[in-house]
Amino acid sequence: MLQRMNDIESFIKLVDGVCLRADMYTLNGTFAEVAALFTGMTLARVGSPIAGDEGRALDRFVAARLCVPDKYHWAGAIDMVAEDDERAIRKLRDLLVEFAELRKTRSFDEILLLAARIRQEHVESEPARVWGRFLAAYYNADRALIEPLILDHPNAWVLWRGDGTPPGVAKQLMEISASHTVSVVAGALEMGRVSLATDVGVVEAYLINGSWRIDASPWIEMALARRTTQ
Fold it and tell me: What is the largest CA-CA distance in the chain?
């Protein structure tokens, strides 16, 4: 136990050193390089507090703390919510140290339970609920439901031209999406513009005349691209 405590303290000191002086430990001091350094530790160093099963617990913990879908690796989750390298490295430092401190007194399973509790306490925003309704309408190619949920777009018609996703597949896709937390990671509700962290990436939403609407441009562009290749 004492050896483990010493390993954790050494790890915390390493995290502090790397994150405070990233350009000394990596070529350019970017978040991607710092994340790669610690990702290497999860793969190679057995004694590290983030190696093996610990690394999987870290993924869940970071995703829960940031309120993003837990399908993402911890580095991807941080990159999704941080505005730039400096903020990403600072957030990485805070989360790795918090996780390491927890490992002094909590087991792998206890940290997973903590992550689950954090998710249960998350309150979904109105833009996140609109995102869910848009997905359901999109899978069913339902124009009457899609149009009020998206920003105006000259090619929006492509979203409802066709038969939609087969019902059984659509149901499975909705269940998968519903199992993931969707949260605001940039912007602000009071500003009328937010970025949502979803299971398909970052989605933009805007408040238009009192109603939140999804920027469906990526789905419109994908649908148009499919039509040109058919």
Answer: 65
* Pairwise CA distance, residues 26 & 37, whole Å: 8
Which pTM was predicted?
0.77
Tell me which of 120, 140, 167 is where a domain ends. Answer: 120
Task: Decide: residue 97, CB within 10 A, 0-12 exposed, 13-18 middle, 19+ buried.
Answer: middle
pLDDT by residue (tens digit) across 117-133? 998 888 889 999 999 99
pLDDT of residue 2: 40
Of 18, 5, 206, 26, nearest in space to 102 by CA: 5
* Total of domains in the chain: 2
Confidence of residue 52 (pLDDT cuts 50, 70, 90): low
* Residue 210 backbone zone (phi > 0: left; psi -120 to 50: alpha; other: beta): left
Long-range contacts of 45-49 (CB under 8 A, 24+ apart): 47/7, 48/7, 48/11, 49/7, 49/8, 49/11, 49/99, 49/100, 49/103
Q: How confident is the model at residue 207 (pLDDT cuts 50, 70, 90)?
A: very high
Q: Which two tokens stand for residue 165?
A: 């996703």
Do 26 and 34 touch, CB atoms closer than 8 A?
Answer: yes
Q: Are residues 106 and 136 in the same domain?
A: no
Name the domain boundary from 102, 120, 138. 120
